[in-house]
């Protein structure tokens, strides 16, 4: 007979993971811009209260919740992350494989890693689908039982990729609500592929917002290929990239490193743009262009220019050419970044930071880099 699977005390586990999530959030205000921090707090409130992204809380209720959260963080002080008691054992919170060995038979999955500003991030969620692409295991999750304020549609730790339906839905709605002028045409184009009108969606969110569930599920299936591209991209090699982001955490250089890594993942033949091109995903192309922030647009201008040529007369060779050209140039920037960082091991990280800003960031036209961008 096979060994019995131990039943997990889910309520207790949810409490344990959420406690570590709360500890991870204590210093989040120093990681994100003020605007980004407040938006993440608002979305976290909605998650905690079971609201859809387009359902806005009463301002007084949200303010009271934020004040209570700040008091909670102050009381936590400098608490350390607690081990997780799972299946009769006790595991360090970053011991993903051992913890998930207990959770997967229960239909659960656990995620842990470091995000922007080397902020720790944790997630406990219900699995709705699992599959493998090569050596990569992809878990698509539905209901999130424990989480911190950082949420991204897909995240990878080693060979495990977590795809989050809720995070994709919130990202889509935040883009609709924010509707940056630079993103409007691409966002409108992407939504049109699903028969949705951007203006109508903004005017009637309660009636039309539920239609975004289909969009989120479909686009998440494509979004995963960013993580696949990242797993197969090795330009930085070994632990060099982690060393770079740790050395220049919360600086324009960290942002540059993350943007370069993201674009290299997207432009890898197995990455997001390669998947979009290969499958002819017009909606995903529109969302890709719409989601690009100013730093990324400066680093990868080819894709916006190609998109504007593509819309009136769709020709995927235009996008493929932009992918190849952008990738070639960004590879050069990444190698220059790595070379300056390595030289800084002898000359100091302050010298390297200033050199990277002067030689790489400012020539891109990002004049505010010396003040930091988030």
Mean pLDDT equals: 91
- Proportion of helical residues: 55-70%
SSE order, one letter for each helix or strand: HHHEEHEEEEEHHHHHHHHHHHHH
- The total of beta strands comes to 7
**Overall body shape:** globular
Strand order within the widest beta sheet: 3-4-5-7-6
Uncertain runs: 1-5, 368-374
| Through-space gap between termini | 55 Å
Question: Structural class of the helices, strands and pairings?
Answer: alpha+beta
Number of domains: 2
- Provide the gyration radius in Å: 21 Å
* Percentage beta strand: 5-15%
Largest sheet: 5 strands, mixed
Q: Count the helices. How many?
A: 17
Describe it:
With 374 residues, this protein is an alpha+beta fold. The protein has two domains: 10-150, no CATH class; 220-371, no CATH class. It has 17 helices and seven strands. The protein has helices at residues 10-25, 34-48, 59-76, 96-103, 165-178, 184-192, 198-203, 205-208, 212-232, 240-247, 252-267, 272-279, 282-291, 294-299, 301-310, 316-347, 349-361, and strands at 84-86, 89-91, 108-114, 120-133, 136-147, 154-157, 160-164. A five-stranded mixed β-sheet has the order 3-4-5-7-6, with helices on both faces. Strands 1-2 form a two-stranded antiparallel ribbon. The longest helix is centred in the C-terminal third of the chain and has 32 residues, at 316-347. It is globular. The termini are far apart. Residues 1-5 and 368-374 have low confidence and may be disordered.
Topology:
Layout: H1 10-25, H2 34-48, H3 59-76, E1 84-86, E2 89-91, H4 96-103, E3 108-114, E4 120-133, E5 136-147, E6 154-157, E7 160-164, H5 165-178, H6 184-192, H7 198-203, H8 205-208, H9 212-232, H10 240-247, H11 252-267, H12 272-279, H13 282-291, H14 294-299, H15 301-310, H16 316-347, H17 349-361
Helix pairs in contact: 5-9, 6-13, 9-11, 9-12, 10-11, 11-16, 15-16, 16-17
């Amino acid at each position: 007979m096979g060994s019995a699977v131990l039943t997990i005390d889910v309520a207790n586990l949810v409490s344990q993971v959420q406690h570590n999530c709360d500890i991870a959030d204590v210093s989040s205000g120093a990681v994100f811009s003020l605007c980004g921090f407040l938006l993440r707090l608002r979305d976290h409130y909605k998650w905690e209260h079971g609201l859809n992204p387009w359902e806005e809380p009463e301002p007084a209720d949200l303010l009271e919740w934020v004040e209570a959260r700040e008091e909670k963080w102050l009381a936590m002080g400098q608490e350390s992350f607690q081990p997780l008691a799972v299946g009769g054992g006790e595991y360090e919170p970053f011991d993903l494989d051992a913890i998930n060995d207990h959770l997967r038979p229960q239909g659960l999955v656990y995620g842990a890693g470091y995000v922007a500003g080397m902020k720790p991030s944790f997630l406990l969620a219900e699995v709705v689908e699992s599959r493998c692409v090569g050596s990569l295991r992809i878990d698509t999750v539905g209901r999130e039982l424990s989480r911190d304020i950082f949420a991204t549609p897909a995240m990878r730790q080693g060979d495990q990729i977590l795809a989050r339906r809720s995070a994709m839905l919130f990202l889509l709605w935040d883009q609709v609500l924010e509707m940056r002028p630079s993103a409007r045409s691409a966002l409108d184009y992407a939504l049109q592929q699903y028969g949705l009108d951007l203006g109508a969606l903004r005017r009637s969110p309660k009636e039309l917002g539920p239609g975004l569930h289909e969009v989120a599920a479909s686009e998440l299936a494509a979004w995963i290929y960013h993580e696949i591209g990242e797993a197969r991209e090795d330009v930085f090699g070994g632990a060099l990239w982690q060393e770079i982001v740790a050395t220049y955490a919360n600086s324009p250089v960290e942002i540059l490193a993350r943007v370069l890594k993201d674009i290299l993942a997207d432009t890898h033949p197995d990455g997001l743009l390669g998947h979009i091109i290969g499958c002819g995903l017009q909606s995903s192309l529109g969302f890709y262009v719409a989601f690009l922030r100013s730093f990324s647009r400066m680093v990868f201008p080819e894709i916006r220019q190609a998109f504007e040529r593509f819309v009136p007369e769709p020709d995927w060779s235009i996008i493929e050419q932009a992918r190849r050209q952008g990738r070639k140039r960004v590879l050069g920037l990444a190698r220059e970044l790595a070379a300056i960082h390595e030289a800084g091991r002898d000359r100091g990280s302050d010298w390297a930071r200033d050199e990277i800003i002067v030689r790489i960031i400012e020539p891109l036209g990002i004049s505010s880099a010396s003040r930091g961008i988030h």
